[in-house]
Amino acid sequence: MQKLSFLLISTILFISCQKPKEQADLLVFNAKVYTVDDTKPSAEAFVIKENKFVAVGNLEEVSKKYTFSDSLDAEGKTIVPGLIDAHCHFYRLGLQQQKVNLVGTKSYDEVLERIVAFQKEKNVSFITGRGWDQNDWDVKEFPTKEKLDSLFPDTPLAVTRVDGHALLVNQKALDLAKITVDTKVSGGEIIKKGGKLTGVLVDNPMSLINAIVPKPTINEQIQGLKDAERINFSYGLTTVDDAGLSPQVIALVDSLQKKEELKIRMYAMVSNVPEYVDYYLEKGVHKTEILNVSSFKVYADGALGSRGAALKAPYSDKENHHGAMVIGNKDFKDLAKRLAGSPFQMNTHAIGDSANAVVMNTYYEVLKNKSDRRWRVEHAQVVASEEFEILDDNLVMSVQPTHATSDMYWADERLGEKRIKGAYAYKKLLNKTGKLALGTDYPVENVSPFYTFYAAVARKDLKQYPEGGFQKEDALTREEALKGMTIWAAYSNFEELEKGSISIGKYADFVILEEDIMEVEEDKIPNIKVKSTYLNGEKVY
Known about the structure:
Elements: H1 6-16, E1 22-29, E2 32-34, E3 42-43, E4 45-49, E5 52-57, H2 59-63, E6 66-73, E7 78-81, E8 83-88, H3 90-96, E9 100-101, H4 108-122, E10 127-132, H5 146-151, E11 157-161, E12 166-169, H6 171-176, E13 188-193, E14 196-203, H7 206-210, H8 218-234, E15 237-245, H9 247-258, E16 265-271, H10 274-283, E17 286-287, E18 291-299, H11 329-340, E19 345-350, H12 353-366, E20 375-379, H13 385-390, E21 395-399, H14 401-407, H15 411-419, H16 426-433, E22 436-438, H17 449-458, H18 478-484, H19 487-492, E23 510-513, E24 530-535, E25 538-539
Parallel strand pairs: 1-6, 2-7, 8-15, 9-10, 10-11, 15-16, 16-18, 18-19, 19-20, 20-21, 21-22
Antiparallel strand pairs: 1-4, 2-3, 4-5, 7-23, 11-12, 12-14, 13-14, 17-18, 23-24, 24-25
């Protein structure tokens, strides 16, 4: 912050010496502002009073009515609205800071090395972590537990695949969970080889292990939430949509926010657990200025990378294997009918074309004659032509562009030439629905919204591959990508009247960028840095 320059004071006095002025808190000027407001797409200055934008325009326009307690010369930098991650795992990201990090490992041996180093430093009683992906290894097969059993015969271990839909465990963990070769769980797979357990569990069977993993303490939970907030503010994210939380964690978030120990805005999806659903349907929607609890997160199927996504026809690289729904069709429809009679949104994870068909058709069936419900399809990753035909603007597609550039190396092997054309088809989805909410799905992917933006418009990974972009016909324009990370994401949360653009009356959330995201060379987009992040007009990074 800096005091108004003599010249600026003189200009303001000259402009409005005839009229009494209202006192405002902050003037931001000398900026290149992308407002994401179609009525005034660009500006060079704005005024904040009592946590909200009260004037937007050029310096002369915004100075007519107000005097200012403070001012900020943006020095010609680019300003965009506070960024919104429409689908992430904020709480999980925070807890991950306390576990072994396996993201980016290039082999199973590297996974083992990181686990050994972690345990040597931390010496925990139950080793947990996340981030391995066999598709990034030379040997693209699921690992097996023999080396883990040798290294950790007496310490239970459970490390989650990067997408959260597969778990690698050792024999000690299997014994504690009472899992044997005869254990049966629907909606997933306990993988065996030669009649023996491999230590890999996909989707629903993971719950047997999760039940024995020690729960984090309150102090660990609080630290995790604060760590996640710090990371998100550093990337210009001011609102996060956490895709699946328990009432206990939501209550903790609410209490920390009320004590101003946690400031980030959160749209919290309640996990689809029967007692959680009962609790919130009785309690009702909970909405404050920074917490929105008005939706349930449901899983229709698993992930494509672990072959758990439910496909209409078999996987191209695994004979007679269709993946699996993790919720029965009847149970899904019954839940949808129940939620249709409530004010809550239903936000369903759907990856495979079979899962997307079930979700989309069920949504339309139970929402018949109901308008503006904004039920969300989370991921909408592989969509068949018949489902594209039924889509309209009564549903919201919530997608994560970096999934396309992470998966493109192997997705065609899973899907084949024909189906891949309906995968990661963001432009087609946008053309059918009119809006697209963009997120990262971190910690599955990187937190950076600039990676999201780059993947959306360039359809390339960070190595700038492929040269022409992956299925470039489904790239978004820069304007569409920015809207997907701001106003359209706010719309998906029923919050477009309070955030998502730099507009009069909305919360004063904005980000100052070191580079112009709308004009910088395309391949430099991932390297954009945040100069500072503001929430309610207060600098938080």
